[in-house]
Amino acid sequence: MPTVLIIDDNTAVAVALEVLFSLHDIESLHAASPAEGLALLGQRSASIDLVVQDMNFSADTTSGAEGVELFRAIRKHHPDLPVILLTAWTHLDAAVDLIKAGAADYLSKPWDDKRLIATVRNLLELGQANRALNQHRSDELRQRRELERYNLRHMVWNDPATERVIALACQVARADVPVLITGPNGTGKERIADIIQANSSVREGPFVVLNCGALPAELIEAELFGADAGAYTGASKAREGKFEAADGGTLFLDEIGNLPLAGQMKLLRVLETGRFERLGSNRERQVQVRVVSATNADLPAMIRAGTFREDLYYRLNVIELRLPPLAERPGDILPLARHFLGKERHLRADAEAALLAHGWPGNVRELKNVMARASLLAQGETITVPDLGLPAASTMNGHATSAAGAEQEPDRDAIVSALQRSSGVVAQAAAELGLSRQALYRRMERLGIARP
Prior knowledge:
Strand order of the largest sheet: 2-1-3-4-5
Radius of gyration: 32 Å
CATH architecture of the largest domain: 3-Layer(aba) Sandwich
């Protein structure tokens, strides 16, 4: 249950607030003076979620100076704790100054119960969300530090979705089990396979790559297992296959869904026994190879269609790592773009916005190509929207707005309407308008809008 600390020298006010809060399942503590309130905060800060404080404590005092001093003391020692200022003597200038300094809201006595509860609930929910966000950021920072002990092969990322994949890749790297990396073309599946190899027990061994989708079906088996002279037309001499080349290391099989059924059967045998025969040979060979495979295909659908072996699928899919498309990890877009550009060039703000707004159907591969083209077309060191050549960006005439959006300042009517809908709860109106409370107060002050 959330807890509110009431700092007010008027016992009747404190009792009224305590009853009001209890009716809405909110616990409350009471301090009759600034010193007592600060002492309670020092003792129980972890359990106090919000402060409601008076602005005047001495008899016949209406300046609000005591309240200002108390607020500053709270803000100094508890900078993230929301504080509602409550007084019978409303001074707009003082209110605006304290809101700019970080006060959550400023309400006049006698207060409106509905409005006060709405404000308190809004701030409690916001505080809970902020604590969860801070915990999430702390967890992300800890995970990032843990990842620093691994060889990440100069991987560039900044999105939590990518980080989760990398963390899992590092976690399973030392386990001698097959890994299946799934995701659309161009997402960077080979980079994840490289990280697995670099942190595996066979990291000193070779890392061999075979793209099963880049070869005719009749040649894939020869590429995998090798062939003796005369095994097929054009095989004038014996050749080593990828399994032999990867012995003692890792074999990365990209586009595994393109492997023909005959090759699938042989691959299954190698995974189970480590033994295979070259095409045209009866001599069995033995290898020790870690297999990492990748696909953009729907392998379960291929199993139902009879084009992919179910037993091979489960043998390859001991651990599955799904790498999302670039559009689902937007935090990676700008770091990757800057990486592809190099240190000599930089992106103008509207170009960054255009990159964030683009859907990236070709994923990281498309982004790399776009940045290469922009580097060639740019007239100077700065990359602009026209340099990118993106379809969506070309309609913006060099004035793109970010997907996150350049902030559009609400006009007077929009602010007044939002305040009316929120019954004058500034925090709620600010959230509706996409502004911070401080930003909304500044605009209200500039436009001459009095809070309802």
